[in-house]
From TrEMBL:
EC number(s) recorded for this UniProt protein: 2.7.1.21
Assigned protein family: Belongs to the thymidine kinase family.
Binding of Zn(2+), residues: 145, 147, 182, 185
Gene (UniProt): tdk
Chain sites annotated for binding ATP: 9-16, 87-90
Chemical reaction(s) catalysed: thymidine + ATP = dTMP + ADP + H(+)
Record protein name field: Thymidine kinase
Active-site residue numbers: 88 (proton acceptor)
InterPro entries: P-loop_NTPase, Thymidine_kinase, Thymidine_kinase_CS
Location (main, coarse): cytoplasm
Length: 195
């Protein structure tokens, strides 16, 4: 039985590394995978998933207009696909997450989606909310706060070195940094400073 998996975390928990390892495991057994990442992410060259450990793989790109179900259905009319892996899946639309459920339920292909659960204000992304609601399996990839507790939250550090308390959910081309924090420290830095 194929399943839709959502591997979620805050920043810097090794999502891309986990994705690349999973894809490699399929290929090592002679199976084919298709990897997607968001076009919105311009940290790296287009069409690549890169891990902080230095490994990378070519990827197809999605934006809000991509019909991922149609693309996979088209590919398997001439080739094989044993697993679909999606990085930056927090940026998927609700409609696209439904397409992922169709890839699993209609085409019988497992889908592994990797993404950030909440943004720098603690709110869910569209893709993460739909994946948390509809995935068959939820798997948390953990990282730790500076205090040693599990870091489930992420803050955006502005140019002055402070945690941002407002702004756009997605900043394209910004030089901002992100830091993973536990809920207690996230609240002190963000929610407690909001009016
Ligand atoms: Zn903490």
């Amino acid at each position: 039985m194929s399943k839709l998996y959502f591997y979620y975390s805050s920043m810097n928990a090794g999502k891309s590394t986990h994705l690349l390892q999973s894809s490699y495991n399929y290929k090592e057994r002679g199976m084919n995978t298709i990897v997607y990442t968001a076009k919105i992410d311009d940290r790296f060259s287009e069409g690549k998933v890169s891990s902080r450990l230095g490994i990378h793989a070519d990827a197809k790109l999605f934006d809000e207009n991509t019909n991922i179900f149609d693309e996979i259905a088209d590919i398997i009319s001439t080739d094989t696909c044993d697993c679909v892996l999606i990085d930056e899946s927090q940026f998927l639309t609700k409609v696209q997450v439904k397409q992922l459920t169709d890839i699993v339920d209609t085409l019988g292909i497992p889908v592994l989606a990797y993404g950030i659960r909440t943004d720098f204000l603690g709110e869910t992304f569209s893709g993460s909310a739909a994946l948390l609601a509809w995935a068959d399996k939820l798997v948390e990839l953990k990282t730790i706060c500076h205090c040693g507790k599990k870091a489930g939250f992420v803050t955006r550090i502005d140019e002055q070195g402070n945690a941002a308390i407002d702004g756009e959910q997605i900043e394209i081309g910004g030089n901002e940094r992100y830091e993973a924090l536990c809920r207690k420290h996230f609240k002190e830095l963000v929610w407690d400073r909001q009016t």
